[in-house]
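Help! Submission page says 'invalid entity' but I think these are all valid:
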Amino acid sequence: METHPRQAKVTMQDVANYVGVSRTTVSFVLNGGTGNGIPQETRDRVLQAVTELGYRPNAGARALAAKHTKLYGLITEIVIAPYAANIVRGAEEQAAREGKTLLIASTDGSSDSDRRAIETMLEHRVEGLIYATSWHRGVRLPALTAEVPTVLVHCFDEAAQLHSVIPDEAQGGYAATMRLIRAGHDRIGFINLDPAIPAAVGRRSGYVCALEEAGIGLDEKLVINEDGEADQGYRAAAALLDGARPPTAIFCATDRMAMGAYDAIKERGFRIGDDISVVGFDNQEIIANYLRPSLTTVALPFRQMGATGVALLAKLAANRDLAPLQHIVECPLVERTSVRLPVPAS
Amino acid sequence: METHPRQAKVTMQDVANYVGVSRTTVSFVLNGGTGNGIPQETRDRVLQAVTELGYRPNAGARALAAKHTKLYGLITEIVIAPYAANIVRGAEEQAAREGKTLLIASTDGSSDSDRRAIETMLEHRVEGLIYATSWHRGVRLPALTAEVPTVLVHCFDEAAQLHSVIPDEAQGGYAATMRLIRAGHDRIGFINLDPAIPAAVGRRSGYVCALEEAGIGLDEKLVINEDGEADQGYRAAAALLDGARPPTAIFCATDRMAMGAYDAIKERGFRIGDDISVVGFDNQEIIANYLRPSLTTVALPFRQMGATGVALLAKLAANRDLAPLQHIVECPLVERTSVRLPVPAS
DNA sequence: CACATCCACTAACGCGCGTTAGTAACGCGC
DNA sequence: GCGCGTTACTAACGCGCGTTAGTGGATGTG
């Protein structure tokens, strides 16, 4: 059983010769719809030859002649924070739906690395560019991006020149807090992130808004800002629980902090989802699913953001003068078992 | 500040006209080394024009003329198991080193999806193909892969026709067990995976080998097979600890099971890394780092496997008749704090 | 029988580029 | 003056393909 390593690639001309028609005819049956006057019989013979010969169009040559590549570029830090990989997933699915191919490159976030990645994309003549980050923040991209429709995902343009797709942090914070309120809690601790970052701002405003709506006064003693890691969640939860008037529920702005909070709660002999409710944020499956009890949390809609980004690219290609917009995607609450059963709606 | 959306792409000819030389000359200074007789002064003028005009070579056209694309394809299930994303990282880094670009596509693992992904790759005339999986197993790829050098990463060809890069599970299991032995343990529980899968086979053989080397008899009562999830780790650890002669250390074949085991151990009032040592496998940062205490575990060398895969591709391109090989990559032990301090080497 | 219509195709151009084969100008030795 | 070797370029082909402008034959129409 011999493989044919150096077998010359079969071209459209080969197919044409094989069938006994011109290359143009082959091109017509392969691309043109039914418009051209080519009878079914010829079509069949061409198609037959294509499979027999194993003909495969050359994407580069096709792009050269047709002047469009059907390529979208995706630049991401996925590599740093794998859990955001679902952005890629969503983007790929949407691209496939639109008949496009995704060229993916990663960046370490430095503007040098960004520039190189974008450069590569442009050399391949992508028809749209998505830049995705692993955490929600403002970015400033090299000016190169002006050459092609660009959409930011999970980040936004500090210069407000580019479209972006970002999660609705406030709504997420609201959903988490409201879930706790509806379970009957009225002293709800909040372990938030560095108040300077967008996620912290949004989640806090959702928290505040939910409390207000429920007529619960905001108690700043119940709010602690940390950096998102598990041990900080542990410390903050411990401080909360050992305080004068401890909360009966804790909303953690990251699942990792919730993971730490679990330890603090368990150490004190409380039972999670019973004595004390916990809600996280991020829906990092690996944590939320396997924590005991499993963690009710708010999902960052990575997959949908990726898809929205690509869909937006298509719109931009059609109309490049669309004013830059922030497209906000909802963060759904994912119910698991760390919150006590809700009080039946009154 | 007007952007120039539809600005026609500048071509090599534009650069030539601008400088007042022929296109060939431009091509020479851009690609040719110093071989051609082009004086520095002309070179400088061309280079100058390139930046002034913002010329960017067209990768497709170049590939068409030069008959090589400098593209490698990477097909992966990254999307299903994000934590294996480091394969992509390693592959990208290596590709960059070799001046290649990575075309990435994902598959859901179905042979249909595989075929489509490979087809896309081939249409783009990749010069090599990497197929990476999220867990170590045998795969069978569509015959299409015969058309281009192919390397499997984190999986192997059931037909033994393709090169593969796989982790040294046995050495990993050995390292984990030996670490425990050197800490003074001689009753070491082992929560393994489904014994049918390669990871379980390898890790067990490493476990057995280490025990043997230390003169510790294998006690099958200390070995439990589970499916890798946290709750199963919990159950298995509980069974081990509640048994007649409980172990003083547990080697878990996944970090997730270690996560569950932690709970079982803590519930029984033992202190991890003190009363009872635990070693995991996978080095899932998000778990291993943030578990309390942090988890000593064995790393799957994703990044290195990715890089090795790409490097292998380069070799294959040079010599397509290399006999299919399994390239085994070491799984390093990552020390954290879940094992009690080692007995000083005697 | 001349002419218009359709049908089923094909010749030929050009996309942007790498590359080969050449050319024109110049200097040098005799 | 001629031959020869450099130096500094350029003309032109072809990569595989989409596409436009045809062409030649069959069929209908008056």
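Support: the input was valid. A stray whitespace character was the problem, and the output above is from the cleaned input. Chain A has three domains: 12-57, 71-168+302-332, 169-300.
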